[in-house]
Amino acid sequence: MTTATPGAPLADRMRPHGLDGFVGQDHLLGAGKPLRQAIDSGRLHSMIFWGPPGTGKTTLARLAAVRSGAHFLNLSAVLAGVKDIREAVAQAQQVRGLEGRATVLFIDEVHRFNKGQQDAFLPHVEDGTLTFIGATTENPSFELNNALLSRARVYVLKPLGLDEIAAVVTRALQDPVNGLGARGLTLPADAANLLAQAADGDARRALNLLELAAESGAGGVIDAVAVAAVAAGQVRRFDKGGDLFHDQISALHKSIRGSAPDAALYWLARMIDGGCDPLYIARRLVRMACEDIGNADPRALALAMNAWDAQERLGSPEGELALAQAAVYLASTAKSNAVYLAWNAALADARKYGTAEVPNHLRNAPTRLMKGLGYGHAYCYAHDEPEAYAAGETYFPEALGERRYYQPTDRGLEIRIREKLERLRALDRAARERGASGGSYADAG
What we know:
5-stranded parallel sheet; disordered C terminus; Helicase, Ruva Protein, domain 3; 6% strand; mainly alpha; Rossmann fold; Zinc Finger, Delta Prime, domain 3
């Protein structure tokens, strides 16, 4: 068994030294899986490990390099620049020339490199000087340039499950050389479950918590009280702007759209618990009220605005309860995206037809000159007409003709709106069939 650096944190000391000791990622490292085959055969290709913290990205890169017999170079994109990349390339060329060995260049948090830094090592990946392995917690599609993505295969690492976290912790408790095995510590089941939950899929966090709790335990027992004390203040994974953030707000939005109030509450709680700005959620709830409910229940928008106001005025936790009330109502009420679709269609026409002229009868005519030019002429004042509706009147530019953007659904209040609009459109058809414009038009000029 290899001995770790004395004084190193437990999480570092417990890094596995072979794939047999690697916990998790069976979807990548199981028998017959392409990544496992590549590592076992020692024939590495450039790759990117994408996953949350503590899932083994750095360890896997090291194990792959060792298995292939390659020289391993480790850079952090947080600290390194083009100069460091050039030095790594020079070292790789020297190792290849003197020892005939390949070099694996591992770049942690590779998403922190700008385009120029990413481009700097590409030629050396292409000519075989380097095998590139990058690690990132961010979506490579958004954070890495296409040239790099085209030369590396992306492998997605998943958070560890509770059983996998338990396996990591058990190994640390039993290992007498690199772990805590020489101390004879015990971890009761309730404390083990609490620790695994607090780790939130992160093996490094689990081992850090275990190491801290081991100092707090009494009589060689790491009980639930000790674990709870060190886990206090731990937050669930939430990056406040990255891929996980967008996944969770998407889940909240789709739960509300899908009329699933319980799921909506869960995702709201996840975001609040993870540190999301409640005012951001309030703004998104307003969006959902307009996009997915609209005129099927206009009260939804008012309730969402009230919840936003409550959050601004009261803060936490009272304001969060208002957000929860709004989320439940939005998820439970009638749904319609008719206004959303109508708006997008109208916006598309506005952009397509540019500055289509306002018809003369709709123009404002505050001066004699404007009246003389026919502005406002033959405009029909709707309030003077039966049902306050000027049947047959047109309100679109001539270039567009008549349009029908808004198509109310048969849900909620839109049932009545649809019925009214159908009645008014019937009046329009009758007026146009008579060759009239809807009654006795008055000259608004």
